[in-house]
Specification:
306 residues, alpha/beta, Rossmann fold, Alpha-Beta Plaits, 3 domains, 6-stranded mixed β-sheet, 5-stranded antiparallel β-sheet, 11 helices, 15 strands, globular, binds adenosine-5'-triphosphate, ABC_transporter-like_CS, ATP hydrolysis activity, P-loop_NTPase
């Protein structure tokens, strides 16, 4: 088995003088769920489009399933599954007809189509809905049908660009469960998401900001190694208004709001009593969540850029 199914080296894409993806080097192992995270406009879709052979890189290299993304994009397109934010289903076709259309598009032999479509219906929890028009499906169902269409050719690698944006939490969980089942069956998955619960379920995560890779590790390593200092949860009245005051304290590195509480990054645990004295709040030391990690990474990057 090939160890890495995706590798990029200093992959770069410019639009005019604007650099959307900047010297990106990543590797994705066979069978892993690789989470690709970053703020809006940070270059995730542009990267995925280059990996799928849809967009030519300006410079740098990349390979997918052993094919070169610049020289062999057509081979890549035949071998992968890709579902973008704007997936195309035919609203005036039924669930079954949409799947038949994609089975034809991928030239799946007639003898296999019936079985393959049934498999996709089962995977997407759409059995029994075959005759519904796609237009009448709810958001979550549409997304699952789009996934079925994207993987009807059973690709060994699947690129998902924000597949769960705009659907209900229940549908999101259901969709991600399907992703996990596909990965357990050996499919490699690169997925962009803004949801931390989904990021937690990835084997590896790359975080980009302004087109530049700023972290790439397992969720656990990111939680344990990125944040330097002592993170505390602070319960205080008027939390929002107190942020700017707290940020100015010399031993505070960062402060952000999390629901009704503040997360304050202190230089060390020794400053906890001082924090409580200054704010009149109650605090307790916590282990950073992935959200803390990404808030911190995005801030560090903003500081470096400005
Ligand atoms: N065809 C294009 N021409 C010019 N600029 C582009 C083009 N495609 C993308 N960009 C710019 O490149 C940057 C990165 O866009 P991209 O869509 O890759 O970001 P993203 O991380 O996927 O964002 P989001 O999370 O909002 O989908 C953005 O500033 C975008 O405006």
């Amino acid at each position: 088995m090939m160890e890495y199914v995706v590798t990029t080296r200093e992959l770069t894409r410019k639009f005019g003088s604007f650099t959307a993806v900047n010297n990106l080097s990543i590797s994705i192992r066979s069978g892993e769920i690789f989470g690709f995270l970053g703020p809006n406009g940070s270059g995730k879709s542009t990267t995925i489009r280059m990996l799928c052979g849809i967009l030519e890189p300006t410079s740098g290299e990349g390979s997918v399933l052993g094919y070169d993304i610049s020289r062999e994009p057509e081979k890549i397109k035949q071998k992968i599954g890709y579902m973008s934010q704007k997936f195309s289903l035919y609203d005036d076709l039924t669930v079954q007809e949409n799947l038949e259309f994609y089975a034809g598009l991928y030239s799946i032999p007639y003898s296999q189509r019936k079985k393959r479509i049934e498999e996709m219906l089962r995977m997407a929890y759409l059995t029994g809905r075959e005759n519904m028009l796609a237009a009448h499906l709810s958001g979550g169902w549409k997304q699952r049908l789009a996934l079925g269409c994207a993987i009807i050719s059973r690709p060994s690698i699947l690129f998902l660009d924000e597949p769960t944006s705009g659907i209900s939490p229940t549908s999101r969980r259901m969709f991600f469960k399907i992703i996990q089942e596909l990965a357990a069956g050996g499919t490699t998955i690169m997925v962009t998401t803004h949801f931390m619960d989904e990021a937690e379920r990835c084997r590896n995560i790359a975080f980009i900001s302004n087109g530049t890779l700023i972290a790439n590790d397992t969720p656990d390593s990111l939680k344990n190694n990125v944040i330097k200092g002592c993170l505390v949860e602070l319960e205080v009245t008027g939390a929002m208004e107190k942020i700017s005051h707290i940020e100015k304290l010399p031993w505070v590195k960062e402060c952000s709001i999390h629901g009704p509480l503040l997360h304050v990054l202190l230089e060390s645990e020794a400053h906890i009593p001082e924090l409580e004295r200054h704010t009149g709040g109650k605090s307790k030391k916590i282990t950073p969540s992935l959200e803390d990690v990404f808030v911190s990474l995005a801030r560090q990057n903003r500081r470096q850029v400005s």
